[in-house]
Specification:
PQQD; PqqD_bac; PQQ biosynthesis; alpha+beta; PqqD_sf; PqqA binding protein; Outer Surface Protein A, domain 3
Amino acid sequence: MTTHPPELARPVLHRTFRLQWEEAQQSWVLLYPEGMVTLNDSAAAILQRCDGGHTLDMLIDDLQAAFGVQGIAPEVHAFVKHATERGWLV
């Protein structure tokens, strides 16, 4: 198995998780067989872009353009690392 540097990784949601808007919660949630994780807006925006088609650098560029911000790479990297450790992303 080839390991890519983090910026070249193409994160994707693990198949056991589903990202969806939950009207009752008025927020994005991550559903899985054992329960649900309520996400803040930033986490949802990142996970929505984790489709396997974007490298991490592409995802960061897209977020910065969409929200008119710069310098968010450290926070995005930290969240993707956390989500990967939790098994949400592969």
